[in-house]
Amino acid sequence: MTEKSKAPEKLGAWKSLRAHQKEVSKKSLRELFAKSRNRADRFSAEACGIRLDYSRHLATRKTVRLLTRLAREAGVGDLRDRMFAGEHINTTEDRAVLHVALRAGRRDRFRDGDQDCTADVHEVLDRMERFVKGVHSGEIRGYGSRLSFTDVVNIGIGGSDLGIEMALKALHHHRVRSIRVHTVSNVDGTQLADVLEQVNPRATLFVICSKTFTTQETLTNARAARTWLAETVGEEAVARNFAAVSTNHEAMDDFGIHPDYRFGFWDWVGGRYSIWSAVGLSMALGLGIDNFRAFLAGGRAMDRHFREAPADQNLPMLLALLSVWYNDFLGASSQAVLPYDARLSRFPAFLQQLHMESNGKSVRKDGRALRVPSGTILWGEAGNNAQHSFYQLLHQGTRFVPVDFIAPDEGSSRFKEQHSLGLINMQAQAQALAFGQTAAEVRAELESRGLSKKEIRALAIHKVHRGNRPSSLIRFRRLDPETLGKLVALYEHKVFTEGAIWGIDSFDQWGVELGKKLARELQSAV
Ligand code: F6P
After folding, report:
1. Most buried among 201, 277, 480, 490, using CB within 10 Å?
2. For residue range 307-359, what is the model confidence (pLDDT) as tens digits?
3. 72-75 CB contacts, 8 Å cutoff, 24+ apart
């Protein structure tokens, strides 16, 4: 099914941005800061306890005005309202896009045609709560086990793995200490083998997590785990030591999943947007249901902000507009996300799927070719580690990579004072990227160190940092479940806004299907 979509390059604001880009390219961040003493205040926004400082961007007030006009002309607000209203904005699959309903309050109204999505979501959530509490209290145990479950093994891949792994790591300091959660995703067998070496089969709960329940990697690992359990404990254990999360009830039946141990969701939830659904079961088992609910509340708060705030104060929209600015006007090759809290070290990997599977498209919703660069290439790593790895390229490479620095004010471990050192490093990096070091400054430094003129001539050029490399600072008080929910929803809506501007369907993923089909064909041929 196709839907009208405007070619972005035909929009008036796009054309104005093209012209404006030439003005901005002549300016430096040093100059922009020198001209406006309170630039840091003027180029910042705050909502839901998240502060965005975007003053170190190659942007003026006019840039922001033109970008917000672009959002208006592209109909971002209209598409957002249609998403929340349950319209089938995923046109190629004719589906509603209602992951926002997964974090709805009981009184919020979300419908997909006749389906009362809010009621269905809460019914599953309440069942998850009973299950999680039962596991934690020991009321629900493994087959023939006197022990409570000590280990949970989540078997899933992509959207059925990345969010769970990211969140469990991010919120490690909020974990339920009596239970360890492991994640198994890769098909090559190594992760599964390593986990099985560490666990007691009777006290281990396997959670098969797969929207479709047809994914080759997940089913291969799930069958191998079932064989291991049957061999070590007995076939009867499958009904007590396996739970499953899927939209495919028939396949769960075939696998032998006990009806009380299965948790459903719906085709209006995309895999990469599913962490809020029963896909979060292993997360809730590892962190407790209250923390899972707090995570949902965080997402809900960000939804409200996204729906209500004007574009120039709207955090997801600002991030998206800056991203389009760099992607389509200033020639950025990619974008890096660099958290200064190692607990967020899997956040870039999670965001990678969110961005690149959603917006890695070259055909617009109306079936025409997209003629501008789309799909931010996103990568990253915990900041301090990355400083000693790839920051050289960010500072002096020929590529242009805007950065999102992310950090809580308070550290997530008991070594609070070490966290301040991390924050100091983040500030220093943002400053070095933005303002660099001129040839004159380098020469003065080398002279003060007593180098000869000849030595200075040879070395200075290599030490120059051109600066003008943009970054956002995304700050919040502490990394708790609610804040993590806000951060995930922030980026979800950022991706939504980018996709709306490019006029693409951000919620399908046809590009991954061909490879899957060919692998199936090759598998059946051997
Ligand atoms: O191949 C990509 C993909 O379809 C993702 O969109 C999805 O998150 C992942 O595979 C796993 O799919 P499933 O949850 O159906 O196993």
Report:
1. 277
2. 999 999 999 999 999 999 999 999 998 999 999 999 999 999 999 999 999 99
3. 72/13, 72/311, 73/6, 73/11, 73/12, 73/13, 73/14, 74/6, 74/8, 74/11, 74/500, 74/501, 74/503, 75/6, 75/500
In testing the pocket of ligand 1, which one of 157, 245, 255 has its CB within 8 Å of the most ligand atoms? 157
CA distance 21 to 11: 15
Give domain limits for the chain.
9-73+309-435+470-508, 101-293, 438-468
CATH topology of domain 101-293: Rossmann fold (3.40.50)
Tens digits of per-residue pLDDT, 34-65?
A: 998 899 999 999 999 999 999 999 999 999 99
Question: Which of 95, 160, 516 to probe ligand 1 with, by most ligand atoms within 8 A of CB?
Answer: 160
Q: What is the pLDDT of residues 150-189, one digit of tens each?
A: 999 999 999 999 999 999 999 999 999 999 999 999 999 9
The CATH number of the domain covering residues in 9-73+309-435+470-508: 3.40.50.10490
Query: With a threshold of 0.90, does the pTM exceed it?
Result: yes
- Is any atom of ligand 1 closer than 6 Å to the C-beta of 428? no
